[in-house]
Specification:
It contains twelve helices and nine strands. The protein is of the alpha/beta class and 316 residues long.
Amino acid sequence: MTPRKIIIDTDPGQDDALAILLALGSPELEVLGITCVAGNVPLPLTIRNARLVCELAGRRDMKIFAGCERPMVRDLVTAEIVHGETGLDGPDWDEPSMPVQDIHAVDWLVEVLMAADDGEITLCPVGPITNVAMAMVREPRIIPRIGQIVTMGGGYFVGGNTTPAAEFNVYVDPHAAAVMYRSGVPIVTMPLDVTHKALMSPEWIESVRTLGSDVGRKAAAMMSFYGRYDMKRYGERGGPLHDPATIAYLLEPGLYGGKDVFVEVETHSEITMGMTVVDYWHRLEREPNCHWISEVDSDGFYKLIRGRLMNLPAKS
C-alpha cells in the first residue's frame, strides 16, 4: 500500500509533539515536511520543539520549515500557561542539532503543492492556520490541488477553551481559519467536541512511560505536565489530547463519527472572536464545507497512539 502523503503544520506544544510522533510511527503515512507557526509559544520555540521531537523519533532527515511569526491580522496570543515556557515542558531536553530548511514555510507549501498531482497531498494543521491561509492567499492555484485538510480546532457543543466562545487554534488566527473554511477544500475538523470525549488516564500515561524507550519516557513526561492544567480546570482524572486526533483519523477513521456541516468563523465581534459558528442543524441551508467530528472510540484512540509509539526507536 502506498503511504498517504501529508504535511503537518504545527506549533509544538506537547499535544502537537504526540501528533508528530504518531505520524512518524505510522508506515501508512509519508510526512513530506513539518511547517512551524507561532501559536502555543513564539515561532523560535515552535521550530526548536519540532526539531526536538523529530530527533527523539530518530528522524533527523525530516524537513522542517519556519513559517509565520504572527497571525494575519491580530497580535499573537500564546499559551505558556498550558505548555510551559518552552512549549515542551516536562522532560529534560538537550538542544536540537538538526537543520531548519532555508525556504519559508509558506513558500515551500506553495512550491510542493504546485508540483504535486491534484489531491495527492493532505494537510494536517494542528495549530493556528496562518501558514496554510497565507499560502492560499499568495497562490490560489494550490487550493484545488490539496486533497484534504484534516485539522484540529474549534468547538460547538462544548464552547471554547480560550474564551467562552473560541478554541485556541482558531482564536489565535480567526482570519486564517476563515480563509480555510471558505476555500472549498474538503475539510475534516477535530473540534473540542470530540477531543473532550477522549481523556488521558494516569494509567495510560504510565503505560507509555513503561514502553522502555526514550520516546515513551519523554512522551509520558510531556503528557503528565500537559494534562495538569486541564485536570485542574475541568476537575477530571485526565485532560484531553487534542492534536493527535488529526493523525488518528487518517489512520483509523472508523474510530470517529461526525456530520457534514457548514462552518463560518467569527472575525468581527471581540466577545465571540474566533468562534466556529457551526450550522449543525442546517438552519442556513448552506452547502456543507466541513465534516465535523463529534464521536470517538476513546479506548481505541489511546491504544492506537501507544502502539505506534512502540514503532519508534528505543534510542534516538
